[in-house]
Amino acid sequence: MTATIAIVEDERAIAENYRDALRRTGYAVNLYSARAEAIEAFRQRLPDLAVIDVGLGPEIEGGFELCRELRAMAPTLPILFLTARDSELDIISGLRLGADDYLTKDISLPHMQARISALLRRVSVLRDQADEGEQLNQGDLSLDISRLQCHWKGETIDLTVTEFWIIHALARRPGHVKTRGQLMEAARVVLDDNTITSHVKRIRRKFQAVDPAFDAIATAYGMGYRWQP
Q1: Shortest CA distance to 38 belongs to which of 63, 59, 20, 61?
Q2: 39/52 Cα distance (integer angstroms)
Q3: Strand partners, 56
Q4: What is the pLDDT of residues 68-92, one digit of tens each?
Q5: Residues 6+ apart with CB under 8 A from 189
Q6: pTM of the entire structure?
Q7: CATH of 4-125, one of 3.40.50.460, 3.40.50.2300, 3.30.420.40, 3.40.50.300
Q8: Which residues form the Response regulatory domain (predicted)?
């Protein structure tokens, strides 16, 4: 089945360049130039993955707002920011809003395609595992892979696909330290150490929102993280 990618980019020439490259790879691609146009289309039908620019016309941070709205509609939909803005603050802001990846516009088209393929592949692999009936339970944690749902003490924790993979990797082997590199491999995404750290901080905040005493993700200083049984 052909995956549908939505590109929300206000510079038409850039958007069409991305669209043409992705169509040659076999994806169906829809272009949107403004936040309102995109969100209206998403309410009718969600794409399989969204590529969003941060600045959308007069809305300097319209992409951030669109990400927030789209996350509320589809907690597990892969979202990738693609922007000329490469400050650490912008990157962290994007990840805090629930983006799975953050790329700058100087990235090569093959590299961008590889990151998109990796994001879509993660969803496919999780669904394949779900077909095998896999469900992971560790104490108060329950992961329903068929629905990409996470529960803690019976409460739903909305996780992005990247966050779900990170929790899955940690909880499968409680007590074992996973390095940031191993978490990247498990999440099937190419991120730097700071980005992995940002994801883990965001995951902790989500769990602490329903359980202030949550401390199941322990930091192994200088090494990585582990799930505490």
Answers
A1: 63
A2: 12
A3: 59
A4: 899 888 877 889 888 775 555 555 5
A5: 100, 101, 115, 118, 119, 122, 162, 165
A6: 0.65
A7: 3.40.50.2300
A8: 4-120
